[in-house]
Structures are given as C-alpha cells and as structure tokens.
C-alpha cells in the first residue's frame, strides 16, 4: 500500500487483511508498539517518530524481514508504510526474490489531492488496544459503542498527528517516498486508485484489481 500519510493505507490495509485473511504489516504500528513497550528499538526511534522523521532503513528492514519470514505470512501479507525510501524498495525486492515472490507483488498507489490530507489526519484517532483506525467525522460513535474490531473503549491520537509534524511527514514523503512511483510504475501489478472516493469504493477498486491479478472470483 503506497501513498501519502493519512491517505487511507492503514484503513484499507485492515479491510484487505480481514478480507484476504492475511496479515497487515504496518511498520509504523510495529514501531509504536516498540516505543510503548520501552524496548531498545523503541527507545532509539521514539524521538525521530515524535518529530515525524524517518527511522533508519536498517531498523525497518530488519523488522520487515523477520515478519515476512513468520509463518502467518506464508499465504501473503499487506505492507503498510514500507518501503518508504529507494533503499528500502531495493531491499524489499531482494527479500521477495529470496522468497520466490518477486512476480507476485502488487503495488496499490492511493492518490489524493494534498490539501485534503491535513483534515483527514487531524480527525484521525486509534483504538488504544488493537490500533484500529477511525475518524471523528465518520466514526465518532465508536467512542460510546466501543472499537468495531475489539470492543475496547480506550482511544488515542497519535502524537505525530499534529499540524507541524504532519507538514514534516508530507515533506519527507515528497522527497524520499514519492520517487518510488518511478521505481514501481512500470511493474506489471501497479494500480493507481483515487483515494478521495469513499472507503467502500476504494476497497472495491482494490479487490477487483487483486482478484483479477490472482484469478480469484469477484
Ligand atoms: P505510519 O504509521 O506508517 O504513518 O508511520 C509512523 C512513523 O513511523 C513514520 O512517520 C516514521 O517515523 C516511522 N516509520 C514507519 N515506517 C517507516 C519506514 N518504512 N521507514 C522509516 N520510518 C518509518
């Protein structure tokens, strides 16, 4: 899943994970857990993440490598937030070649007009228990009814979802991540989706593409 911060990679990734019954690997989510748990990695990346910067390639590459080799990824996986730099994309290719999956990668590019992003991110909140993502404009009722996935009534805002930090994350995206489109755009499995459409329409467009690619039924 590829696209600017706040475009909906996490939301669509979670829906796709449920639908295809394969795990979603979100490097951001894994790193936030490391920070919460006070691990060595967490301590090293906390400040960088707080400011909306990118953590060093080797840290996320190690995380992705160990997750991809876990048993629950044998049928496939959804990457959310990785790769974010050219080095990471090259590393991912090498991992996929190693696994014999190089020709099975699909790249879904969620495209949106940049001016719409800030309000999307500022309204975002998460279930503090399972990380499920919600938005004040569409899902505020879960604060009363509980998280739609795990039922928890405990919600939080990400501490990098603040105006100044969002600006920094978008700038970094444009400088370091956006060039990856050139890297991927001529690949066989590259889809561009209008991420401004509603969640169901975006989801349908993605599943139609994935099903067609893998010859699954729609
Ligand atoms: P996300 O949840 O994908 O928005 O990621 C939150 C933060 O985690 C980012 O702003 C980075 O600080 C860090 N992060 C997540 N994935 C990566 C990655 N692939 N490379 C570098 N930093 C990452």
Quick synopsis:
With about 220 residues, this protein is of the alpha/beta class.
Describe this structure in words.
By secondary structure, the chain is of the alpha/beta class. It has 11 helices and 8 strands. Strands 1-4-8 form a 3-stranded parallel beta sheet, with helices on one face. Strands 6-5-7 form a 3-stranded antiparallel beta sheet. Strands 2-3 form a two-stranded parallel ribbon. The protein is globular and about 45 Å long. The two termini are 20 Å apart. The mean pLDDT is 93. Adenosine monophosphate binds next to helix 2 and helix 3. The site of adenosine monophosphate has 18 residues, from helix 2 and helix 3.
Bound molecules: adenosine monophosphate
* Biggest sheet architecture: 3 strands, parallel
Beta percentage is: 5-15%
Q: List SSEs in N-to-C order.
A: EHEHHHEHEHEEHHEHHEH
Shape: globular
Distance between the termini: 20 Å
> Strands of the biggest beta sheet: in what spatial order?
1-4-8
Write the layout of secondary structure elements.
Blueprint: E1 2-3, H1 9-20, E2 24-26, H2 27-36, H3 40-50, H4 57-68, E3 78-80, H5 86-99, E4 107-111, H6 117-122, E5 124-127, E6 133-135, H7 136-139, H8 142-145, E7 155-156, H9 163-177, H10 180-184, E8 190-194, H11 199-214
Parallel strand pairs: 1-4, 2-3, 4-8
Antiparallel strand pairs: 5-6, 5-7
């Amino acid at each position: 899943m590829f696209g600017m911060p706040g475009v909906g990679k996490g939301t669509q990734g979670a829906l796709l994970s449920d639908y295809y019954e394969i795990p979603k690997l979100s490097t951001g989510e894994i790193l936030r857990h490391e920070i919460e748990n006070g691990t060595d990695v967490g301590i090293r990346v906390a400040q960088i993440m707080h400011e909306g910067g990118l953590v060093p390639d080797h840290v996320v590459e190690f995380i992705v490598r160990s997750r991809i080799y876990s048993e629950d990824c044998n049928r496939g996986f959804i990457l959310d937030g990785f790769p974010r730099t050219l080095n990471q994309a090259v590393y991912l290719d090498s991992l996929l070649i190693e696994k014999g999956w190089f020709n099975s990668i699909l790249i879904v590019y969620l495209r949106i007009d940049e001016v719409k992003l800030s309000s999307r991110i500022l309204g975002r909140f998460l279930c503090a228990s399972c990380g499920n993502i919600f938005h004040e404009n569409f899902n505020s009722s879960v604060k009363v009814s509980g998280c739609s996935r795990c039922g928890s009534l405990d919600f939080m805002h990400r501490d990098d979802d603040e105006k100044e930090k969002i600006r920094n994350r978008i700038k970094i995206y444009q400088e370091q991540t956006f060039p990856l489109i050139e890297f991927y755009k001529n690949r066989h499995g590259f889809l561009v989706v209008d991420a401004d459409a509603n969640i169901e329409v975006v989801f349908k467009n993605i599943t139609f593409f994935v099903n067609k690619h893998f010859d699954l039924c729609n």
